[in-house]
């Protein structure tokens, strides 16, 4: 009997070991699949380019795509019946001399009556693509925008260039509304643009009936849906009322619609197409690469992060405008106060401020009376200051899409600007608990963390994946810290460290104890409660290295999140992830790329070095945390008594 049991146990162990190997192989294959897909996309792009030129030279040809490069070239031309007027108004009204990429094509398509989705990075001039056609068409253009403040900014701007535009929203007076509703069916078109929120379309029968009349009179020239990704559940700013906008195309099928967004992926756009009931829209996607922006990630030391920011502002951005994004309203106030104490003209901005205070900060900043706005993400849509020279993130964003959008407020004038994010360990878990209820919140956050943790891939190329684009690292032009300071990393074998730290969490769990990531760090560094110190192998890594290893293990499935909810707050604990069991296998090893300035040579086993660097390269930028920690690097190995 005992023999039988032993045999079964042995077989079970062997099956489990085999399963672990299979799981490892699957994860390796998945990684390989991602890389191959990226290469495939790039090759397809190259092939598509080659096919288009072959087609134009008359050779034999694959079927023509629905909107080919030649079509695009056609719409880039300036010999349409409206071209002269468009060009004249570009100069005389908008005081611009040239179009930016895709603007002319978008305008020509829209003037030709085509439905269009225009995906263009933030600040590249999407508004012009419906404002200019509005001026060159009979009647008025209906613009759906998500925020009243955004409409007001647009109206202010349009007023400054003498373009008649109006809005209908909850704060419009009765008289205003009456005037606007009458204007909609006035053949003399007293205004060329009418801005409304999606809620207004959903709720105001009067507005819909006037639109119907205007449509029948041929006065509803065009419909523009700004921030069109808000239609889709998969878009990061989903707004339920956007879902009801399908009524517009159903009621007014002959009116061309243009949907504008800075952040939609192709899946989000497909969803928007369905929701808006647009049959066959043409999608124009401007390249997302902003070559004038320099992207950088810095490790965050909570104690002196604001000092570092202040120093940057004083030295590198003297007299230049910028934004510091923070996590919470409390942080906005605290960081702004800290900066003020260091003689920097900074003011906070967050959703909970009085609207008049918000506009005051915005105005002061726009007119350079203050240098820096310390803001939560509430400072976003509708911010149109061209000469923002830096956007510093005091805390990481909750997704790459958000980061792209927020950092993209820099350098709208095409002049060079910096986007720096301070990557802090504790911040990851603050954000993680904040997005816990969001569908894909954790995955998106992990992508952002992977962007920050990355040491060997061009930051642009990493962002591109999220916009269904493939950018070559060599197109970066050293405009990210990785490309500029290339090879500043080492590949490390962290298997033993991983085993040690996973054991800590395992032991805690066997004692029915949950550990937050910070507690795991402390315990591993030998700073936790005495009862833990007796049982664990204290690491010789520095705190920064410890944090990096834990983040790596979390990103790669050796750890996972264990949320615990109370009526007041959500706690983040670490538990073993699906790959933790692999560490029991002696043949399993984990390697990790780590920035030189993070790792200390004495403590980790170096597997291979990146090309071009000598092992004796000095470890730069040591922070107090590192040096403090060296005191405790006594290679203590404590075992059970
Ligand atoms: N052809 C052009 N040449 C120079 N500047 C331009 C051109 N087109 C637009 N701009 C300017 O670019 C700035 C940003 O334009 P706009 O607000 O339309 O951007 P956007 O793409 O709508 O951004 P967001 O996604 O933030 O709404 C404006 O100051 C605008 O005047």
From TrEMBL:
Belongs to the helicase family. RecQ subfamily. Residues 49-70, 602-641 are annotated as: Disordered. NCBIfam families: recQ_fam (TIGR00614). Pfam families: DEAD, Helicase_C, RecQ_Zn_bind. The lineage of its organism: Eukaryota, Metazoa, Chordata, Craniata, Vertebrata. GO terms for cellular component: chromosome; cytoplasm; nucleus. It comes from Sinocyclocheilus grahami. This is ATP-dependent DNA helicase. Keywords: Acetylation, ATP-binding, Coiled coil, DNA-binding, Helicase, Hydrolase, Isomerase, Metal-binding, Nucleotide-binding, Nucleus, Phosphoprotein, Zinc. It is an enzyme of class 5 (isomerase). Residues 308-456 form the Helicase C-terminal domain. It catalyses: ATP + H2O = ADP + phosphate + H(+); dATP + H2O = dADP + phosphate + H(+); Couples ATP hydrolysis with the unwinding of duplex DNA by translocating in the 3'-5' direction. Residues 606-631 have a biased composition (Basic and acidic residues). Residues 632-641 have a biased composition (Basic residues). Residues 107-282 form the Helicase ATP-binding domain. SMART domains: DEXDc, HELICc, RQC. Its cofactor is Mn(2+); Mg(2+); Zn(2+).
